[in-house]
Amino acid sequence: MGDITDAVKAGVDVIKLVANSAGSFIDTSKYVSALPEDVHGSAVSGWQFKKVGKQWKQTSDWYEFWEVDWDYTVGMKWAYNGTQEGAGKFIDQATLTLDVGHIPPDFTLTVTQHFPHNALNVGGTGDAAIWALQSTITIEAKGFLGQLVAWTTNLDCLVQADGEWQMTGG
Q1: Domain range holding 109?
Q2: 16 in a domain, yes or no?
């Protein structure tokens, strides 16, 4: 009788471990703007807001146990089209986003962002300048105990002060 009790207890412990290892983590410590040094955010007006993303979704039939079901979207949101007395187009409040519909209970999903450059001028000069931010978003997925399934992918992202954007990779 002790062997059965020990087996059940071990099974319950494994289920608790799997359930507690699930989660998603996003690096929200970054807040980025594309304002030149001589422009203060409070002096800029005309802001509009945009949120964009790239969705990962995979579903499988119940008997395809080797497939992993996902549903999450990684993206950016930012304030754009800000001008100072009608001059320039600026970006403010650019942040990374992660919207999770479903990840398997034994997976962790970590999303981070790196801005390798300062603000870029992608069009115009002087008062007609259009500013942009370029970044790399890294998505890392790890399966049970990080051993069975693990992958990392990078997205290159460019958001512009005129509301245009590009997200490539993955």
Answers
A1: 23-169
A2: no
CA distance 44 to 87: 10
Q: What is the pTM for the complete model shown?
A: 0.74
Taking the CB of residue 27, how many other CB atoms lie within 10 A of it?
A: 15
Kindly state whether residue 3 falls inside one of the protein's structural domains.
no
Q: Is residue 12 part of a domain?
A: no
- Grouping H, G, I as helix, E, B as strand and the rest as coil, residue 14 is helix
User: By the 8 A CB rule, do 54 and 167 touch?
Assistant: yes
For residue 134, is it within any domain? yes
Into how many domains does the chain fold? Answer: 1
Q: What is the pLDDT along the chain (170 residues), one digit of tens a residue?
A: 556 655 445 444 444 444 434 566 666 556 788 777 777 778 888 999 999 999 988 887 766 666 667 888 999 999 999 888 888 888 888 889 989 888 877 788 888 888 877 788 888 887 888 889 999 999 988 876 545 667 899 999 999 999 999 998 87
Per DSSP, the residues of 13-67 read HHHHHHHHH-EEEE-----EEE--TT--GGG-B--EEEEEEEEEEE---TT-TTS
